[in-house]
Amino acid sequence: xxxxxxxxxxxxxxxxxxxxxxxxxxxxxxxxxxxxxxxxxxxxxxxxxxxxxxxxxxxxxxxxxxxxxxxxxxxxxxxxxxxxxxxxxxxxxxxxxxxxxxxxxxxxxxxxxxxxxxxxxxxxxxxxxxxxxxxxxxxxxxxxxxxxxxxxxxxxxxxxxxxxxxxxxxxxxxxxxxxxxxxxxxxxxxxxxxxxxxxxxxxxxxxxxxxxxxxxxxxxxxxxxxxxxxxxxxxxxxxxxxxxxxxxxxxxxxxxxxxxxxxxxxxxxxxxxxxxxxxxxxxxxxxxxxxxxxxxxxxxxx
Amino acid sequence: xxxxxxxxxxxxxxxxxxxxxxxxxxxxxxxxxxxxxxxxxxxxxxxxxxxxxxxxxxxxxxxxxxxxxxxxxxxxxxxxxxxxxxxxxxxxxxxxxxxxxxxxxxxxxxxxxxxxxxxxxxxxxxxxxxxxxxxxxxxxxxxxxxxxxxxxxxxxxxxxxxxxxxxxxxxxxxxxxxxxxxxxxxxxxxxxxxxxxxxxxxxxxxxxxxxxxxxxxxxxxxxxxxxxxxxxxxxxxxxxxxxxxxxxxxxxxxxxxxxxxxxxxxxxxxxxxxxxxxxxxxxxxxxxxxxxxxxxxxxxxxxxxxxxxxxxxxxxxxxxxxxxxxxxxxxxxxxxxxxxxxxxxxxxxxxxxxxxxxxxxxxxxxxxxxxxxxxxxxxxxxxxxxxxxxxxxxxxxxxxxxxxxxxxxxxxxxxxxxxxxxxxxxxxxxxxxxxxxxxxxxxxxxxxxxxxxxxxxxxxxxxxxxxxxxxxxxxxxxxxxxxxxxxxxxxxxxxxxxxxxxxxxxxxxx
Amino acid sequence: xxxxxxxxxxxxxxxxxxxxxxxxxxxxxxxxxxxxxxxxxxxxxxxxxxxxxxxxxxxxxxxxxxxxxxxxxxxxxxxxxxxxxxxxxxxxxxxxxxxxxxxxxxxxxxxxxxxxxxxxxxxxxxxxxxxxxxxxxxxxxxxxxxxxxxxxxxxxxxxxxxxxxxxxxxxxxxxxxxxxxxxxxxxxxxxxxxxxxxxxxxxxxxxxxxxxxxxxxxxxxxxxxxxxxxxxxxxxxxxxxxxxxxxxxxxxxxxxxxxxxxxxxxxxxxxxxxxxxxxxxxxxxxxxxxxxxxxx
Lengths: 302, 510, 296
Known about the structure:
The complex is a heterotrimer.
Chain A: H1 2-43, H2 63-68, H3 72-106, H4 109-124, H5 127-137, H6 143-150, H7 166-191, H8 196-204, H9 208-219, H10 221-236, H11 240-246, H12 257-266, H13 271-301
Chain B: H1 2-33, H2 46-66, E1 81-87, H3 95-106, E2 111-117, H4 122-134, E3 140-143, H5 146-155, H6 163-168, H7 173-177, H8 179-183, E4 186-187, E5 193-194, E6 197-203, E7 206-210, H9 211-216, H10 228-238, E8 248-251, H11 258-269, H12 288-302, H13 309-315, E9 328-331, H14 337-341, E10 352-356, H15 368-373, E11 376-384, H16 391-405, H17 407-413, H18 424-435, H19 441-448, H20 465-480, H21 486-509
Parallel strand pairs in B: 1-2, 1-3, 8-9
Antiparallel strand pairs in B: 3-11, 4-5, 6-11, 7-9, 7-10
Helix pairs in contact in B: 17-18, 18-19, 20-21
Chain C: H1 5-14, H2 17-48, H3 52-55, H4 70-76, H5 88-119, H6 125-135, H7 144-153, H8 161-164, H9 171-182, H10 186-194, H11 199-210, H12 212-228, H13 231-236, H14 245-256, H15 260-288, H16 291-295
Helix pairs in contact in C: 2-15, 4-15, 5-9, 5-12, 5-14, 9-12, 10-11, 12-15, 14-15
């Protein structure tokens, strides 16, 4: 009995200490993240016009969600967001993995450091500045068009205003901006890999590509998992590039979900409807992450 | 893993069930803070709102009525009250001067004004509205976007009903601003409540031309207007050069002042430009004149006389980087006159004239000034924030502003006053004094002298106007960039526009 | 495949010529790719010293033929008339202030939380952790208005506090610190406990020093994030005196439009401090940034 009491006391104490450590961040989480999220979830079921203040809304149940599927802007934004993620995430993963491995194996040590830092640069710069630079690069007389003309394309497209090219143009900026970060992470993980497998492969006379394909790639799976999840999340949330460079245009060619959330909420003042879009985005991210997670942990068990 | 999934799902479910109390609690707290603001009505329905605000306001005004010519507006302890004016123009185009003038004049009456600039775009207006609803940062503001924007803000209870103040000041709005111009700005069931006063007269179908280029090309300045055909001929003569040095005949302003290009249509179709009639239950885009105008615009682009839509958009071209740098001989966007007058920031050495935009044919030319005056848009609506703690001081400021305080905006900003107390000669004189050789005084006299009393009542009722504008831009861009033909464009405009209207009406009805 | 410096030297001696040539060739290719990555920045710097008419000249001149710092003067409004400027210097100071304080607050709070998640046993730790992770998936635009309402109820709109306070919880940092603390063996903690140290002292004196690399990395990440944040300051700060650099830059870009020379000068100035922070913090990046990644 006494022992039990002592244990309970100890557990209580442990709990108390832990919560003291967690206090600042938990309070912040509840106040600045959880409560706003719950408000938003609730708002997605209302017809709230945000200017009228919190609480001035009518409850409309799932009307917003029903309406979404006949809304061509929403469909376009959903499609574009998916295309964006499906293309930018794998492309930048593959590119960065190859780059990281090649840099690690073949580059002169000193050059490798400099190269990694150089590649990381775009990741640290603010998106407004990056957008400004790329708008200039994509401009009618900018370097890209010049290059294409020099290559014999007499009338290159106006990238950011072209129905076909606008989305790929934005995707290129995203890939470019995120590449260095991914190379960095891969490089760091590479240094942590066990060496013995490579040694035995060397003895067997494996080529570089074989080693890359059968040793490096599988061993880096956890890193790839991490980068996939964060990559999907960030590609789903892309906003500043669209907002500064294309405003969703031409037509709805570069409407992304977050951009649509922003316009419906603040331009059309339909906060309820916008929240419904955001809620869908949220659940999409949640599902993708959970699937990835299950997949990853199943692999780990094997 | 199953466990983790279960926990996650549980968390989500808890989140769902908590949603009710979470927001219930917070709505309560908001109700407290905005108690003053929401005294009248918390929940919608314009009718009850109007009635209740009226009741609340009339209580206040008895006090106001007695003290129209107050000597002291400040606090009881002798300190001045501080009010903030929000508007969407950089301070150097007259607003700083305006506020300075006011502060000098009211130093011993206890009001101190400060100018705060906001961006008149999506994020800027959101910012304005959030501050209006939270209170404390905005006292007086100048709004844009016409009646729908103001109506939306009235319904959200962000704007103060100033009708009783106006009566207390014995201020006759019809006399001072024109009966027709004011008609669009009355609200409430009996159309007799005032929430804001328009201060600027603007004639959207007018355009800027580079007079030096016109003279060089031997083209007569079209002071009295012109037809599309004459315009096209002029544009051809004005266009020259190749590649990066090309000078275009016209920049339509698709990117930064799309509404100005749309304004060209107003001089022909007014008032039924967007909506087919006063009920606003259908769009007007199937009117054959729209087709004609769109085809005309496409022609100017295809012939190479106008900057293509895609160029304007992808380069983010503005009047500053085209017209003012001699890369286009003509441009729309009369609301940007302040930039023409600003030789310090945008140095240029040619004379600009303001002339009417082209109309489809001679038959629209009769009494061209009158026709163009018909779409006088009364803009720059000045209103008072519902939440302001100093309504008396705010209205005194507003009154001062609209009855002549705005003169710096004329001088430095090229904003033509709607107020009748400032006469034509004074406007021309003020602007010309500042503009020097930059502006053709005769053309300005034509523009500023348009008969304000001829304004036709525009469509006051609107549904989903912002969305319809976006659909319009989207479809027109597709047409002008050549990825869709004219008939598809028109039919898309009509179907999508009408769908949006139906949706908005349905939402209102619920 | 993985070799330390010493081995490389040894290996190099053994390397056949062909192998060396391959190494040089690939190094050159990689350097070229890296050059492509920084080319936009070089272009940006170069354009910021050009006159408007020369920015888009054909062919591109990477090094301007003249030195034209007037763009910077104009952005900073040195030598300019009485007209109001873009308040770049003030915005600069605001950004430095907000970012620095946010980083200190954010890292400290995440260090505490990460430790609790990794090393302390308490009821609800799993649920809470998943709740934390779920927050990473919420687009911040969604919660913008509710957050604004909360701040306005707290009377904190238009203060820098409204940008700093939310940094008290940076979920990704909490996660990273958790991973980092998990990697620290429990023996250290036990040893300290036997010496009679309390939990807080163990945290401060034993555990935190063990995750210095992660700390440096997270500090850098948070500083960059806060320096670059765009929508929050845009909405929360109404007065230009409070503006941070991104808001000022955005204002500038939209007003000056295609005046690429001015826009680039402004962008260059906005980037300098983050570049410095990054170059100094860069050493710790490799170690610190990857805790979460490697452990999965």
